[in-house]
Input
Amino acid sequence: MSRIVVIGGVAAGMSAASQAKRRQPDDDVVVLERGPYVSYAACGMPYNIEDPARTLDDLVVLTPADVRERGIDLRLRHRASGVDSGRRVVTVQDLEVGTTVEVDYDALVLATGATPVQPPIPGLDKRGVFVLRQLTDGQALKQHLAEARPARAVIVGAGYIGMEMAESLRSRGLAVTVVERMDQVTPGFDPVIAALVTDALGRHGVSVETGVAVQAVEEAGGDGLTVRTDRGCLPTDVVLVAVGVRPRVELARSAGVALGETGAIAVDDGMRTNVPGVFAAGDCAEARHIVSGRPVWIPLGTTANKQGKVAGANAAGATEVFAGVAGTVGFKVFDLEVARTGLTATEAASLGIDVVTAVSRQPSRARGYPGANPITTTLAAERGTGRLIGAQMAGVGVVAKRIDVFATALAAGLTVEALEALDLSYAPPFAPVYDPVLVAAAVARKRLQAAARKEAAAVGRVGR
Amino acid sequence: MSRIVVIGGVAAGMSAASQAKRRQPDDDVVVLERGPYVSYAACGMPYNIEDPARTLDDLVVLTPADVRERGIDLRLRHRASGVDSGRRVVTVQDLEVGTTVEVDYDALVLATGATPVQPPIPGLDKRGVFVLRQLTDGQALKQHLAEARPARAVIVGAGYIGMEMAESLRSRGLAVTVVERMDQVTPGFDPVIAALVTDALGRHGVSVETGVAVQAVEEAGGDGLTVRTDRGCLPTDVVLVAVGVRPRVELARSAGVALGETGAIAVDDGMRTNVPGVFAAGDCAEARHIVSGRPVWIPLGTTANKQGKVAGANAAGATEVFAGVAGTVGFKVFDLEVARTGLTATEAASLGIDVVTAVSRQPSRARGYPGANPITTTLAAERGTGRLIGAQMAGVGVVAKRIDVFATALAAGLTVEALEALDLSYAPPFAPVYDPVLVAAAVARKRLQAAARKEAAAVGRVGR
Output
């Protein structure tokens, strides 16, 4: 019998522990979780917070009792404070009683997750200022909404958590302003897609200020706050800071585990780190991007679950492989669905991949069918080969599950010509005869052909 | 300048004519259409009929004037009565004035479509008995609904037109009974999927009788009708016969054009028939199935449009290729979406493909998110290789656009293992962490592994 220790008990950690126990029922599987919860659906927090009738506890997937029933030695409120990877020992603080013990391991899985970026802005410690990462963060915010009954909110950061929370707080009746330092919302999405997000926010009464830097959060008398920016002051009652996350890698570093270029833990396809016996998975770890072949850091629940499974299996002696990520990300903001997969044209260019881009617009359903709305697609394809490199979509309708077709095409290395020939489902309630996916591919194929003709003509001119 | 004649002016025919004219603007492109309309969205008829406020004319995509503006010589109410492929001449009757003329061609595109199967049941000529194929059929039915105000309908045939019309007529307040000769609704779908369709019909107040043969339609006094079956009599006011279609190939046959095993026109990848200069496209023609590699006849609007484009381009001298079909079909009945792609286990078996099947059930959205409902998936994968062979899905939620992921996987020849590794979009409003597609692939992968182990064990026993 050997012992597998998992540090972190949310998506990746619990997947790892469950998988390890399933593979090696006789092994001792220990989960160290510094918080009071394990295995909760963090992505559901914005929607839960929106509904006063629900409690955040609804998001708990497995109770501690469930976990222990699986034969896992779960230690809640236990913080791993150090790893001696030579002796294979984790130093663990019991946060309840204050004692420190050493736990030895044969295999260790680091599933330490990510932590919200706290920008160097004075006043983020004020009452009424929140982040949203752990279940306890959500509980604190939701309790504040119920008790202080704030009327106004400022969300700092227009990433997808910011967008989801804009919807959530607006739906609870707050006046919401989103402040973003970059010159568009949802950085990482093409401007034409971001413009549709801005439009959706506006249609639903959310103010958006881009290209604005927050300088301080100040008290404004009573329970009020002021968000001071380089473009003026925003009076508010609540501030949500959602400017992204960074990987929690302090423990890894202390254990001599190498980080990658992204700053997250470098892993191989089996989620092994450079240190023998030490694995990493989830939001603290990198993943290989299937389009570029390079390590990337795109912290997401789906990836965390899948990586956790592989790390747990391999910690238990298996040789499973994580297939990598396509960079698929999706979110909903009010009635608008937004999603992307693969590389943007900008990302491709920075990797030396020469792409042609195409923008198209096609209804989500057959003309005349109720709820037929335009879906906008941007598509990047490799010049010369025609291989799909990435796609983004936004519209009021089924968008994310259409992006999945592109994600599948990326995994298979399909060209836009092959995409255009796909036999996709059609009936008036869910697609026009030519699905937006097919139209996007057709437009890209034509742009590739035009580019090739132009190139041939240029070569001809040079030759003359 | 040469002349391209297209027989049939709906999906395939208009696509062919438009494409030909675009490729060769100086060519003479003639469309012969026996009906009074061209280019209408036939698939929209059930939804249009459902809504008394709309007229069937809404489904017309291009008016005759639009078509003529494209420089196409459109001849409505002109019936092609014969083709002499030796002399390259079509005999054409002007149904308005009764004259017959000969039109010669350099290239001919047969887009004659399909015609409803009229089962040998006495009484199908009675007032109140309808089929639904052409726009004029829809107009006749809709007018009857408005004028005769029938209270009861019997739909003969539980294919997807029957299902869509059950919803349509039920939504208009009629008491609807569906009668199907086979022992399940939607033949061509797996029984577990068909059971969900039956359930949806029942939940919405539609009676379903399977394994019942209609023997006659009789007058029952007043405007009433009686549908006599081998299991008793059904009193009704309206009967819709929707027992499928057959390809219209009389003209092709007269021209010496060879039919395939399916009874539809045999074509190559360029939509060429065996007769030089004669192409065929749409519901009258076969297509290559990308999984089996065999010719199939699956008449659908999407295929008709795509084949028409290829036929038109090639009639104009190009060498375009139609990539084939995956057998993707989808429909909605009330709140249930149903779709399939690829081969069923039964179809695979008949082709000598040894498959393992898997049934799975996974919510459409994250647990706790409003509208999270189970989606049922059946999946067939090739024993040994693990290659995806086909999939079917049904559920209240996004189903058809999930089937598209399987359709893409079929085109790329992916295994279920590769499917399981896909980086699909995830956020609570549109998927659980493990999308139904991924769960279906995982269940299939496990069943394949179990089958392989069983086989290995059997070999071991034999070897002993």
Q: What stands out?
A: DSSP finds twelve helices and 25 strands in chain B. The mean pLDDT of chain B is 96.
